[in-house]
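Box 4.2: Ligand-aware structure prediction
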Amino acid sequence: MTFRPRAGKPPVLRGRFAFTARHPDAGEIEDAFELEIEIPPTFPHEVPFVIEIGGRIPREADHHVNTADNTLCLGSPLRLRQLVAEDPTLTGFAAKCLVPYLFAQSQKQAGSGKFVFGELDHGLPGMLDDYVSLFGVKEYSQAVEALRLLGMKKRKANKLPCPCGCRQRLGQCRFNTRLAKFRKVATRPWFRAERIAILEIVRLANERSEKAKAELRRRVPVFSSIAALL
Ligand SMILES: [Zn+2]
């Protein structure tokens, strides 16, 4: 791939991205995609955007592409940030976020017809399912409450009821440790904005008008659920 600085825009890496990866069920895949990877100036705090430019991945939500800007839907925003935080380099991003996605695309195209890691449901449930799994809770409402607490200062959040259902204050529960890890991944304003965005999507989902449905389709991408490869 070649590095291309651009006037007034973040730089991109452009060209052939080749990889070899193994998955216990799907076996080994060696493949390459033509990509353009936009590196935000705030990387690794913000995750790069990736566009497939070789015409292999249809630019459709069902194929895990954001139709608004043609970027690949590598995963839900918090999951991607969490993965990048584990190895905050471009190589880390490629290994943890990009290769699993391309592996699944390649396997799907080779005839399995399925995404090897599974796919999150369309729209809001998929988005919330991912938060439920990231936070290790059972209910959507608990995940939304966890987002609210992450939007507050730690000291204040610790005095409030724990979202895990233990009937203790957050500061007294082990869930506190789990939640605290996410504070390193994104900022309080980010969590506040994410919670507001989710509540707005819930409102649209409950409205059931055609206009609301169209708005929902525009706002909520179909995320692929990614996992680490060996
Ligand atoms: Zn608890």
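In the box above, the bound molecule is zinc ion. Residues 2-112 form one domain.
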